[in-house]
Write a structure and sequence with these properties.
9 helices; about 85% helix
């Protein structure tokens, strides 16, 4: 298992890298595209925070329903370890559906929030509203990394085998490099795309497209984490193929939305 020092160093490097990437993205947007108001960024931050709060509440509903239904069994358990094992056994049959549900809730909540964040605003604002969404996305990524590294440092059994934890950390490290690229392409791109679709009278079609893309990305992320728990029955080749497919498709989706959104916004601002 990685040492405490290496884990702390990894966290520090990740935070510095993501902060630097956030600043670099803002500077690049200002210099290469157009200057934006800080107020637009705060609009994106506010709507994204609201979306995540609602998303979190909705994502807990299936688990709470299962727990309430199995409450007598839960009350009979004495230790935290037994509770964790029981929770895993109770949720396991529903995991494929829960993965899809969690991803769908993320897509619906965040994209509806984006829809109203950019609605009726000048098209140029969409880039920086999306940047505000991306900032919160990065912050959530930092918190996720902190939790994984904290568990690894304390040696708690979030996964039953060392190689699974190591693989989970590997995904986190790869994600460190890719996350800023995806966040600062997808969120501004989807925001510009949605605003342009609204201007063309096809806002709901654009919303459906961004929800589908967002659901795909988030569900795939959860699926990757899930198969780590089943690593003993998944070959290394299959896992690597899945990992490559995930990062490549998510990056391509982000680039496509950014290019389409940028071209559409430029068209509406110049016409």
């Amino acid at each position: 298992m990685p040492s405490v020092i290496s884990l702390a160093s990894a966290l520090a490097i990740a935070v510095v890298y993501w902060v630097a990437a956030s600043i670099a993205a803002y500077v690049a947007f200002n210099r290469a595209l157009w200057r934006g108001s800080r107020g637009w960024v705060f609009i994106g931050v506010g709507y994204m925070l609201l979306a995540i709060i609602i998303q979190y509440v909705l994502q807990q509903i299936p688990g709470l329903v299962i727990l309430i239904r199995e409450m007598p069994l839960m009350l009979s358990v004495k230790s935290i370890t037994e509770i964790n094992s029981l929770l895993l056994s109770l949720l396991r049959p529903y995991i494929p559906w829960l993965i899809l549900y969690y991803g769908l809730m993320a897509g619906i909540c965040q994209e509806i929030a984006r829809y109203f964040a950019v609605k009726d605003r000048e098209p140029a604002s969409a880039l920086y509203i999306g940047y505000g969404f991306a900032l919160i996305d990065i912050a959530v990524g930092v918190l996720s990394l902190v939790s994984i590294l904290a568990v690894a440092r304390m040696g708690l059994p979030i996964v039953p085998f060392k190689n699974q934890l190591q693989a989970l950390l590997t995904i986190q490290y790869v994600g460190i490099a890719v996350q800023p690229l995806v966040s600062f392409l997808f969120h501004p791109g989807a925001s510009m795309f949605l605003r342009a679709m609204q201007a063309n009278g096809r806002g709901l079609r654009g919303l459906a497209a961004t929800i589908i893309a967002h659901t795909y990305a988030d569900s795939f992320t959860l699926y990757l984490n899930y198969i780590l728990y089943e690593l003993l029955t998944v070959t290394g080749v299959l896992f690597m193929v899945t990992l490559i497919a995930y990062f490549s498709t998510v990056i391509v989706i982000s680039i496509v939305f950014f290019i389409i959104g940028l071209n559409k916004v430029k068209y509406h601002t110049s016409s």
